[in-house]
Design brief:
Elements (H helix, E strand, L loop, with lengths): L3 H4 L25 H5 L6 H29 L40
């Protein structure tokens, strides 16, 4: 039985960046040097395997970047709510005419 990949030519995945990263893969298409130089010599099956490998490399890079950004984000201020290193809030002085902190006669019984 024929595979659909055998019926159609697989286009070259080159994106025109053509620079290598620290591992020797192209920054644009993530192919190795041999995969780029011998692309037209490979069978369609081999080309599909290379494209699958490039996609796997791309997912690995994206996963590493997302893990790195998660590590770089500062913790939420809520996590530090009860930390001892934060300055403590100072109590507010009582309002004028409210020397002992108890409500005045006009404020007694008011809930809102």
């Amino acid at each position: 039985m024929l595979d659909q990949g055998e019926l159609f030519a697989i286009p070259n995945p080159c994106r025109g960046v053509c620079q290598t990263n620290n591992r020797g893969y192209c920054k644009g298409c993530l192919r190795s040097r041999e995969e780029r130089f011998h692309w037209h010599e490979f069978t369609p099956f081999q080309q599909q395997l290379i494209i699958n490998a490039c996609e796997k490399r791309r997912r690995k890079i994206l996963q590493a970047k997302s893990a790195q950004t998660e590590d770089d984000t500062p913790p939420s201020p809520q996590y530090e709510l009860f930390a001892s290193s934060q300055p403590q809030l100072q109590p507010q002085p009582p309002a004028a005419g409210d020397l002992d902190g108890r409500p005045t006669s006009g404020e007694q019984g008011q809930l809102f």
